[in-house]
């Protein structure tokens, strides 16, 4: 009954005081054990507790959390091995395991309160993982933290509203988040994590910055925990979410195709591929839900593998820009093989795992007559083929005058991690029933190897080849990073915040001057009222005489009372402000 998150978090706490070999060895064992435990633990296992005075479920096992636990543990096991072989420090891997542990806590939670608790801790641990590398990663980490703080706050507001409406934080108390404002808050709050269009720029801004091994972890947990949260919040789907997922798929792939930085390209493809998952959740049918979580499982495998292969290239040749690479196939043959498998998987080529799960989502969109979603996802599939033809061509297969004969090949641990994950991409592509048995939803209507589906995959691949051939020359002329919405959002946030702060500060200063001046005037009048009375009476007397008569005295008293009332009103405004 010990929550798996706590096991991983315990190892994370021990890591800094252990040797690299022992610490990373414990990390491999702990995360691998989570995958096994998630597979064998009986469905319905749960641990009720009282948390902050409320009924809560610290962990709960159902079809959704089981699948997430299996893949989170499995890929963490490979990523820890990769980290050890990539010279990652114990501290960095400790932060990474903290990130894994808090993600496990979120997906195994049986109530909204426990989920948001681990959700926010996940944002903290992932930020620390980014910051650990220093340099440019620090500033990117601050922006990352701000985005996720805002998203988490909106999600928390939705959960509090849910409690007010339902009277309980338990998942079992209601089917998802109640409609209306709570649902809107939850959609936008979770939308930060999954990379809704307009809320996505933290992805390409952050993931290329830290250590290459850290990027492997970062590519997995935040966005996929977000998909899980979206499915919990909207178990019956929502049309707007389906179309947002399609938009994510298309926008992400367009920006990915325009990138030359390897990890930035891969980061945009996280948004694009998560778009398929979000579309599946939005469609909401049994087949769409099964397809969404099949794609979660498959995407984690091939996306982590892509970041591993990119990390080997960066570590061995100290270059991220595809323009300055080429011909690495002979210098890094096993890395090139692993990349090819991952590229075919993410592109949805028949025989690889992405082909199966993408087809389930597009088939569900077609069955529900959501033609807009269906055709956008197909177009995004063409763009994905083009992106990874570009990546593979410039990094591994293009001829180059540079001499890579002195390049050191991938370390043994890196090779084991990469080829192990690549093997799973092929296994679940050729034998999808191994995945169907653990999927939530209903995969019985999934028929990946029909002639029509295979033909669709081959046509998309052909269009990708033709598209890259036509656009190769224009794409080669693109220089640095292509502007995204953050080129508007970041300055707007900076100058908007500065204007707001200065405006509020100036207002308080003005009120303070009025209150202080009035206070001094009242104090002076109380301590020595005669000069005030004399001047006031003089102003009100018809002949301007200095004598104070009964009429002028009444006027003086009324004026003094009015002055006191105005000063007190100004003071009250200052206090309430």
Automatic annotation (TrEMBL):
Record-linked NCBIfam families: PRK12668.1 (NF009310)
Transmembrane residue ranges: 35-54, 66-85, 145-164, 176-199, 211-231, 237-258, 274-294, 300-318, 330-352, 372-394, 415-432, 452-471, 557-576
GO cellular component: plasma membrane
Organism whose genome encodes this protein: Halopelagius longus
Domain of life: Archaea
UniProt keywords, alphabetically: Cell membrane, Membrane, Oxidoreductase, Transmembrane, Transmembrane helix
Membrane topology note: Multi-pass membrane protein
Keyword Flavoprotein assigned: no
One annotated GO molecular function: oxidoreductase activity
Identification of the protein by name: Na(+)/H(+) antiporter subunit D
Signal sequence segment: none
Keyword Magnesium: no
Principal place of residence: membrane
Residue stretches making up the NADH:quinone oxidoreductase/Mrp antiporter transmembrane domain: 109-371
Localization per record: Cell membrane
């Amino acid at each position: 009954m010990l929550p798996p998150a706590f096991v991983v978090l315990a190892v994370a706490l021990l890591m800094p005081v252990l040797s690299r070999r022992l610490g990373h060895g414990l990390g491999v064992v702990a995360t691998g054990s989570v995958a096994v435990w998630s597979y064998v633990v009986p469905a319905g296992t749960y641990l009720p507790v009282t948390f902050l005075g409320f009924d809560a479920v610290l962990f709960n096992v159902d079809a959704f959390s089981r699948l997430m636990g299996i893949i989170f543990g499995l890929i963490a096991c490979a990523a820890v091995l990769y980290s050890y072989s990539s010279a990652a420090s114990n501290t960095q891997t400790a932060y990474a395991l903290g990130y894994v542990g808090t993600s496990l806590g979120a997906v195994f939670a049986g109530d909204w309160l426990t989920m948001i608790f681990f959700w926010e801790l996940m944002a903290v641990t992932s930020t620390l993982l980014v910051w650990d590398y220093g340099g440019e990663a620090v500033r990117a980490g601050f922006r990352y933290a701000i985005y996720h703080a805002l998203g988490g706050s909106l999600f928390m507001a939705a959960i509090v509203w849910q409690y007010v409406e339902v009277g309980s934080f338990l998942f079992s108390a209601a089917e998802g988040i109640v409609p209306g404002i709570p649902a809107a808050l939850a959609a936008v709050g979770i939308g930060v994590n999954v990379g809704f269009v307009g809320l996505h720029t933290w992805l390409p801004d952050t993931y290329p910055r830290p250590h290459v091994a850290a990027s492997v972890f970062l590519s997995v947990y935040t966005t996929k925990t977000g998909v899980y949260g979206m499915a919990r919040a909207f178990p019956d789907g929502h049309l707007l979410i389906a179309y947002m997922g399609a938009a994510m798929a298309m926008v992400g792939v367009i920006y990915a195709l325009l990138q030359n930085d390897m990890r930035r390209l891969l980061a945009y493809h996280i948004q694009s591929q998560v778009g398929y998952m979000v579309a599946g959740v939005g469609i909401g049918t049994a087949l769409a839900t099964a397809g969404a979580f099949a794609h979660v499982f498959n995407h984690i495998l091939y996306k982590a593998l892509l970041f591993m292969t990119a990390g080997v290239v960066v570590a061995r040749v100290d270059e991220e820009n595809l323009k300055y690479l080429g011909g690495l196939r002979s210098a890094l043959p096993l890395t090139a093989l692993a990349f090819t498998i991952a590229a075919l998987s993410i592109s949805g080529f028949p025989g690889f795992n992405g082909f199966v799960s993408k087809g389930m989502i597009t088939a569900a969109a077609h069955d529900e007559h959501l033609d807009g979603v269906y055709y956008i996802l197909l177009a995004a599939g063409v763009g994905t083929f083009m992106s990874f033809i570009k990546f593979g061509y410039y990094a591994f297969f293009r001829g180059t005058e540079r001499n890579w004969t002195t390049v050191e090949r991938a370390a043994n641990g890196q090779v084991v991690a990469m080829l192990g994950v690549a093997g799973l991409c092929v296994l679940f592509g050729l034998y999808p029933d191994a995945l169907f048995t653990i999927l939530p939803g209903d995969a019985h209507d999934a028929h990946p190897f029909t002639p029509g589906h295979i033909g669709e995959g081959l046509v998309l691949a052909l269009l990708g080849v033709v598209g890259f051939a036509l656009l190769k020359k224009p794409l080669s002329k693109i220089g640095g990073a292509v502007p995204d919405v953050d080129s508007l959002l970041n300055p707007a946030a900076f100058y908007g915040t500065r204007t707001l702060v200065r405006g509020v500060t100036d207002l308080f200063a003005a009120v303070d001057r009025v209150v202080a001046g009035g206070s001094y005037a009242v104090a002076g009048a109380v301590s020595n009222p005669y000069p005030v009375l004399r001047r006031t009476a003089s102003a009100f007397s018809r002949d301007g005489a200095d004598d104070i008569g009964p009429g002028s005295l009444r006027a003086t008293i009324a004026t003094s009372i009015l002055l006191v009332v105005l000063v007190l009103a100004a003071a009250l405004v200052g206090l309430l402000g």
